[in-house]
Design brief:
Length: 356
């Protein structure tokens, strides 16, 4: 795939312009977006991503087009998984809904910058060291295991990293609109808004560790890796408000992502064996009998896994709801409220969290 420096510059410039427009058109004035607004813009960005993939397939061939679509689907699924953690962070810091857009926008920009750095490093490693595929493959298999048994109830706002940040930086106990810092008693304090953004950035760094090796398991083209990540992150802010309630119903998404990560991890290990140069494996010779998983099979497997995980999740939650309704009809006590379902005062909630 031939990508000139000019194409790279145009792509990066257009990506920046999209985020600048997003900020001034939607985020600059604090408000909670409506379902209709979120749906329109989510559909726009998903349609734009699909159109871009068709363009890659038409111009550069459908092998690269298939790699883009497989990468986009994987990154989009992983980004939706990010939303689970974003929800927990927002609840942990009791961010008022009208300010959540700003936190998400800055968090998404941080994610894109971090992933850009990981993409550049990954491209350099793959170009010069073929054995890195073994490392990426092993890493994804470990991450798949952790993903399968992950617990989204853990709150990053109460983690060791944020505890350290609170000890180092002076933090106010309440929000001051959407300001990041404020002067009090002649001293500069950071607000819960900035603390939340730091937490989101830290979460983004952790998620970049699995998202970049995952997509490099589907394509070696850095341009496809970047654009698939950029389009997956575009519209993520609107998706947060559109499917916030639905996220709690996707109970099998983590297991579905674990299957995808494990599949890509095995694909990477197979590829590493097929191009092997390590002297202690087969005397440094490639194992040509090891099969290479074609991109059409990867795309089909990833799509099917996402569909199955989504349908199974919705059936499971619907079944649980029917059981709860049946129990209520027969006078049985049913408790469905979660830890963040209570109607709590945001300032009190944040003060309780920051004092930990």
């Amino acid at each position: 795939m031939q990508v000139t420096p000019m194409i790279w510059l145009i792509t990066i410039a257009v990506t920046i312009l999209f985020f600048v427009y997003e900020f001034f058109a939607h985020v600059r004035k604090p408000h909670e977006p409506s379902i209709a607004e979120s749906a329109r813009w989510s559909a726009f960005y998903i349609g734009l991503a699909l159109l871009f993939g068709v363009g890659i397939g038409t111009v550069s061939g459908w092998t690269f087009g298939g790699e883009y679509f497989a990468g986009y689907l994987t990154e989009k699924a992983l980004s939706i998984d990010n939303l689970f953690v974003f929800l927990i962070v927002m609840a942990g810091f009791a961010v008022p809904k009208k300010y959540q857009q700003k936190v998400l926008m800055i968090g998404i920009i941080i994610a894109l910058i971090l992933r850009g750095g990981f993409i550049a490093v990954g491209a350099a490693l793959i170009e010069n060291f073929s054995w890195v595929f073994y490392i990426f493959g092993a890493l994804l298999l470990v991450l798949a295991y952790r993903q399968a048994f992950s617990n989204h109830d853990s709150n990053p706002a109460d983690g060791k990293f944020m505890t350290l940040v609170r000890r180092v930086l002076p933090v106010t106990n309440e929000y001051h609109q959407d300001k990041l810092t404020v002067m009090q008693g002649g001293k500069r304090f950071i607000t819960p808004m900035l603390l939340t953004i730091i937490a989101i950035g830290f979460v983004d760094l952790i998620f970049a560790v699995d998202s970049i090796p995952a997509i490099y398991g589907l394509t070696n083209e850095a341009y496809i890796v970047f654009t698939a990540n950029a389009f997956a992150l575009m519209g993520l802010r609107q998706l947060f408000f559109l499917i916030g309630g639905l996220l709690e119903r996707l109970v099998y998404l983590a297991q579905g992502l674990a299957v995808i990560l494990a599949f890509i991890g095995l694909k990477l290990v197979f590829h590493a064996l097929h191009v092997n140069e390590l002297p202690f494996i087969n005397d440094g010779q490639p194992l040509l009998w090891v099969p290479e998983i074609p991109i059409w099979l990867s795309l089909l497997f990833i799509t099917a896994t996402i569909v199955v995980a989504t349908v199974a999740s919705l059936l499971k939650t619907r079944g649980d709801k029917n059981k709860d309704d049946h129990g209520q009809i027969h006078g049985k006590p049913v408790t469905t409220a979660g830890p963040h379902d209570r109607d709590e005062d945001p300032d009190k909630t944040f003060t309780a969290n920051i004092s930990k």
